[in-house]
Structure formats: C-alpha cells, structure tokens
Design brief:
The structure is a homotrimer. Chain A has about 140 residues and is α+β, with helices and mostly antiparallel strands. The first copy, chain A, has helices spanning about 20-25, 60-70, 90-100, and strands spanning about 1-10, 15-20, 35-45, 50-55, 100-105, 110, 115-125, 130-140.
Chain lengths: ~140, ~140, ~140
C-alpha cells in the first residue's frame, strides 16, 4: 500500500484542447510501482479544465474548441463578471461543464485507459500560462 | 485495508441514457466486504459516458437524451471530425460534458447512493456495442 | 493509513451557486490528520450538484446561474418529466452537466486547492431543502 503525490506545472498552452497524457505521466514515474490502484489528477485553476477523449485524430480537439466557443459565447449580455476580459467568464463556465479532476484506474503499473483515450488539458483563456497540476497515486505495490 | 479491481463489459445498449446500477454491482460483489471506502467506476471509451441521476421515472432518461441531442446537434457546419458518421463528433462532445468516471462512497458494504440515485450508462453512438468498464474498490474491510 | 467518512446535511440554500468550502471543511476536521491523501465529496441528490470555481468575486456565481438557466431552459416542449414543476427536469439536466462528486487532493493536513478555488453547492431547485453530503477522507497520517 503506497501513496505518492506530485505537484507540477504543465507547459503553457494556447487556448484550446490539448493532449497531455505523456506530459503528465512523465512527471509521475511512481505509477509504474502500483499493481492495482488509482491516479487522481487535479487542476488548481478555475479557467482551465481536464477531460479524457480521443487521442488519435486531432480534429476532435478542434471541434471541441469550436463547440464550446459556440455554446458558451463571449460577451453574453447577462455577464456581470467581465473585468478580466471577454474570455474570462466563458472560461469559468467551461471549467464547470468539463470538470477539474480525473480519476483513472491503474493496472499493472500503467494507467488503464482505453485504446483511444488520452488526457486533455482544456485551456479556456487566451493567455492562461503554466497550469498547476496535482497528481495523487495510491494502490497496492 | 483492501483493493479490488474488476474489468468487464456491459451488455450493448441502444443510443440513450440507461440505468445500470444492478448490472455494475453484480460484477463487483467485493463491495460487500468494505465497511468504509469508495468505488471508482471508469468507462474506457470516448463516445459513451457515466453519470448518476434519478432511478425512478424513466422519462428523466428520455428527456436527457432529447436535451443532449438538441444542445449537441449532429451535422454542425463547423465539425471537421465527421468521417465516422454524424453521431460520432456529437458523441465525443457529450462524453466530455457528462464525464467518464464516477466516485461513489461505500458505507457498510453498500454503495452509499441517495434514495433516488442510480448509475447511468450514457450511450451516445447509434451502434456503440459492448462498453468496457473498470471498477476499482478500496477501503477498510 | 486512515479512512474517515462523515455524512451530514448542508443548510438549505436558495436556487443558485453557493460557496460552501468552509461549511464542508468544518464537518470533517479529520482532514487535518492526513499528510498525503484525498477527500471525496459526494452529494446524494439528483437535482443539485457540486463543482469547484472562483472563491472571490460573487458575480461568477450569479453568471453561472444565469448561463445554466439559459442553456437548460424550463418548459422545453419536449420534456416528458414535468409533474414536479418546471424547475425539476432542468435541475436533473444541470446535475448531469455539472456532476455530483469532487475529488480533492489533501497535502499537509489541508485541501490542496488553488488560490482562487472554492467548493460550490449548485442548488438547481427552487426549494431544494437541506442537501445530504458524504465526505470520505483517506491517506497517510
């Protein structure tokens, strides 16, 4: 039975949906020690989010960005929180819809993802900067 | 302190929202051994999702399907990822909105769900087939 | 290695998004005993939800309520589940979108939230009443 926890920053990303599986896994080599367990991935921000989706065709990521921009428009007349720019309140809303943490099973020293699954950082700000991540890993060694 | 992990397939479902609490629980009888703990339920796909909602009136599931079809339409002109059919990109978007994992407390050998809560498989493809699930259970025995 | 679990009710809230970090933390003083671990926060309802977002400017919470009311309207003509009032089916949909549980890392006896992050109870009913919460805490002491 073991617990490991790592806090680190992801490289700054452009606004959009980004595949970050390998960038995250390389920061947590302790995953290899766990035979059965889970990894919890948490983002310490309110205008960027985490999800899991297709790791192959990059147009999935483009279409997600297009969809969320359309369904959560900038400059909606009812926004009261608008002092930080037109991308700010939409970023908060997108974060609430997408979510700020992931729980992924670990099996035999690896994240037990489906063949087509990858971890996405969803950067909802135009200039979000480096995003802070906490990964907690626990399970049987 | 115990860890159990089971990977299995759910029976293929029609497109829509489906109550699967008993289909999942019967695959993980080890839940009964846990006095205090959690169950993590993870779906290894990017076009189907998991949520928790009302376990009683089936019209809730019908209305959820109607709502998501309306808010995530097929054939949006901006979709670039459309080689796998008009239901494919909407399925990816719906999965991102709904989410691909659940964390449920275990108390006294049972999932500690509210009276009206049930686990839903949300099948977003027209022909999604059998969906692969990983349930990880941990806690004090 | 420890497990703690507390089940309690939050004070009834008006329809809307509410900051409840301190109301939750005061019910689980055991968080202070954990050096590395996680807290799982679960709501036992299908018409209220949990999320994490900005803990500072209260207009973020107002704008979230406005956005969700617009994107999940009452009285949509396709709703079949409408015997419990016009706020009922929208509340189920909002709960599915926002989610019913949170997983937060614990580091050094504290929830390891970002500077601007707070826990929100999202009350989607007009008269939701006291909402039942289960917090499970585990980790190394």
């Amino acid at each position: 039975m073991a617990w490991y926890q790592k806090e680190f920053s992801l490289e700054p990303k452009l606004r959009g949906f980004h595949l970050v599986t390998s960038e995250i896994v390389k920061n947590v080599p302790e995953i290899k020690k766990i035979s059965i367990g889970v990894a919890y991935i948490f983002i310490k921000h309110t205008s960027a989010s985490l999800t899991i989706n297709e790791n192959a065709d990059p147009t999935v990521r483009l279409d997600l960005e297009s969809y969320f921009n359309k369904t959560v428009p900038e400059n909606s007349p009812f926004y009261k929180h608008n002092t930080e720019g037109p991308d700010d309140m939409p970023a908060h809303i997108k974060s609430v819809i997408v979510g700020n943490s992931l729980t992924i099973p670990i099996t035999g020293g690896r994240l037990n993802l489906g063949t087509w699954q990858g971890i996405y950082l969803c950067e909802h700000r135009n200039y979000g900067g480096a995003r802070r991540i906490v990964v907690t890993v626990t399970g049987e060694e």
